[in-house]
Amino acid sequence: MLAYGSICGNVTxxxxxxxxxxxxxxxxxxSMLSGPYTLFLTIGGMLGPLVGFTVARFGAxxxxxxxxxxxxxxxxxxSRISEIWHIYIFFGIMGGLGLAFSEYLSATTVINNWFIRxxxxxxxxxxxxxxxxxxxxxxxISFMISSLGWRSSxxxxxxxxxxxxxxxxxxxxxxxxxxxxxxPDGKRRPDGEDAQSRVYSTAVDWSVRDALLSPALWIxxxxxxxxxxxxxxxxxxxxxxxxxxxxxxxVSASALGLMLGMSILGRLVSGVLGMRFDGRYLAVVFSCIxxxxxxxxxxxxxxxxxxxxxxxxxxxxxxxxVLLPNMMGAFFGRTNFSRIVGWTxxxxxxxxxxxxxxxxxxxxxxxxxxxxxxIAAALLFGGSLLAFFLRPPSVKxxxxx
Length: 401
Hints:
Elements: H1 2-12, H2 15-26, H3 30-46, H4 48-58, H5 60-78, H6 84-102, H7 104-114, H8 119-148, H9 150-172, H10 208-212, H11 215-244, H12 249-273, H13 279-298, H14 303-332, H15 337-352, H16 354-366, H17 370-387
């Protein structure tokens, strides 16, 4: 939770807060500044097969420490930028390496190794740490920028990330229960008694090949792509959009923080409900809730709609971000989880990384964000319909790739 929350708050969520300050300093357009963030997301996902291999070979803990160390160096480098290509190197490439090796895949592998029966609740706590950092860090970063300047703020973030994502991660993370002489929560006990669960969980560990041939996996990948396409668009452009509507920089950053803070509620609620209800029905509900949040943002000329957006989009996103990896673990098992996710992350990355770039392009072309937000809302409501048709795959078992 410390390591995951650190890379979310200090890296992923931080860039949008610096967006306006860096652009004003050098006169760079929003589409220009969207490019490094798109590269950041692309590298973070396209290296999935390599990350899946290294997690299986060396353990998730080493991945998390190494990735966060590279990310901390990138944050430090951001304090010295003077050309747009500097951002591509320090944030796009180095931050992207940190995202790939230390965030989603590695963190969820640790949870999937330790938990079966209470997997959704454990994932809820894990992702809640990301929401907590998103709630706290945007206003903190905004305050640092106004007090210290944006260059010094990057240096402060680098030091904080080194402490949480590298030092404490190295001391606290254990890859799997077998390394400690334990067994996962929910595993068959030596006396033969089975842990009980109210929702589907596969009795076998799927091979990578069989999983990739399953329609259920591809439906989840489409849902994940739609979710992250919209989410990446929002966290990159939301602050600038609200400032265009004449909200102050602090209010604009706080709205992003509130959205991520409300996602904590969505993540925890999803974790609890995921142990009791079919994931596809929950996905329909949470995707619609997030869609309603985007509709509220489109009408954010009044403060009430800003708060409605932050609350609805946060709850919806938080619920979905827990549901999808929980269903992947429940559908395909523990043994090859990191490699299955690793081979599928490039697909999600390619499909979702264009969100910030599209919003920046449409802003430059139309002078506003309304068209981009309309597309975002339509994608979310369409995803809720697709989620209704998601079913557990027919059980197969083959040799792992």
